[in-house]
Amino acid sequence: MDFNVKKLASDAGVFFSRAMQFTEEKLGQAEKTELDAHFESLLARADSTKNWTEKILRQTEVLLQPNPSARVEEFLYEKLDRKVPSRVTNGELLAQYMTEAANDFGPGTPYGKTLIKVGETQRRLGAAERDFIHSASINFLTPLRNFLEGDWRTISKERRILQNRRLDLDACKARLKKAKAAEAKAALWSDEVEKAEQELRLTQTEFDRQAEVTRLLLEGISSTHVNHLRCLHEFVESQTNYYAQCYQYMVDLQKQLGRFSGTFVGNAESTSPPAATSPPAVAAASLPAVPTIPVVPTIVGVPSTVAESVLNPNEVKPPASGTRKARVLYDYEAADSTELALLADEMITVYSLPGMDPDWLIGERGNQKGKVPVTYLELLS
Fold first, then answer.
1. Residues 264-309: pLDDT tens digits?
2. How far from 113 is each of 27, 70, 287, 376, CA to CA, in Å?
3. Is the pLDDT reported for residue 348 higher than 90?
4. Could you tell me if 217 and 89 are in contact, meaning their C-beta atoms sit under 8 angstroms apart?
5. For residues 325 and 347, is the Cβ–Cβ distance under 8 A?
6. Sequence-separated (6 or more) residues with CB below 8 Å from residue 61
7. What backbone torsions phi and psi does residue 85 show, to the nearest 5 degrees?
8. What does residue 347 show for φ and ψ, rounded to 5 degrees?
9. What does pTM read for this prediction?
């Protein structure tokens, strides 16, 4: 019991001494031991690393999960050391709604078919987003969080200890200075000087030891930067793969819609409202003139729906006039033998046939010939 009381009294005395020293330093009434320039540089670099790591961590969390409520929920699960429940991504939820709408409107209708195709792509985009978030959380967010909750806490703890050691050292220096001043007046204070010098040597040793420990931890910030650099590369690679997947999914979807666009437009004409007999003059004036491809006049004996009767475009002869050059905008894979595969930026010759769907043309490249979607072409004058 007596030991505990003495220890509490000693701790209270040390705390009071440090508080007095700190206050006098702030008021300019006491000297302060300054750290060397290299040590101060290490401290500044550590503080900068901590501040920027926090900002990067928080903003990356916002990037991966824009919903603040969801972020708070994930934070609570993490603090409770419980697994975060799986959450449906926005893309997957949109895919679900599109699929349900297609079943309601009729999966065999043009709109229903398109909803199913787009919905499937949205589902794949949502799954890719989920994989990206998971990868980024493990390879990037976790190392940053580990630094702030592990290494930085250790550094902060040792810095506080160093600060206390410095206050103790400066307080001993002040006591020794007072004892020497009193010794000059009376020889009876010689014992106080000897005691103050002994305390100073002890506190100087403790300060030097703590300064070395803190210095080693601060110098470890360089290895932290190396580790974070590796994690940053992994984050960029993960993000690149995610956007590459999204791009490929959308290109595939565009190709699928390009193949079915003719059928969809043809079927939709019967259910679409009649066009206005007299469109507004302003709208008509604002629309750019779209070049059209002359249609070959109907020949007696040839059915009006050539697109349906001519199964093999290779047997179709180009008209004497009305052909045009076109530049291919995107790669296109032929769905069957009646279509012509395209490569981006190549030049081909195109023309239309009587009764042919307006979204398709006949394209020629050397001896090759086949149907091509208009949306993949830039018609040249």
1. 444 444 444 444 434 443 333 333 443 444 444 433 333 434 444 4
2. 79, 34, 30, 21
3. yes
4. no
5. yes
6. 71, 141
7. -65, 150
8. -105, 135
9. 0.61
Partnered with residue 342 across adjacent β-strands are 332
Q: Tokens 């002994």 appear where?
A: 198
Long-range contacts of 200-206 (CB under 8 A, 24+ apart): 200/169, 200/172, 200/173, 200/176, 203/165, 203/168, 203/169, 203/172, 204/169, 204/172, 206/165, 206/168, 206/169
Token pair in block for residue 153: 């806490």
Cβ neighbours for 48, distance < 8 A, ≥ 6 positions apart: none
Query: Hey, CA dihedral for 248, 253, 254, 258, is it positive or negative?
Result: positive
Identify which of 228, 211, 12, 245 has the alpha carbon closest to the alpha carbon of residue 125. Answer: 245
SS (H, E, C) 6-37: HHHHHHHHHHHHHHHHHHHHHCCCCCCCCCCH
Residues 207-227: tens digit of each pLDDT? 999 999 999 999 999 999 999
The pLDDT tens digits for 121-131 are: 999 999 999 99
Q: Exposed, middle or buried, 290 (CB in 10 Å: 0-12/13-18/19+)?
A: exposed
221: number of Cβ within 10 Å: 20
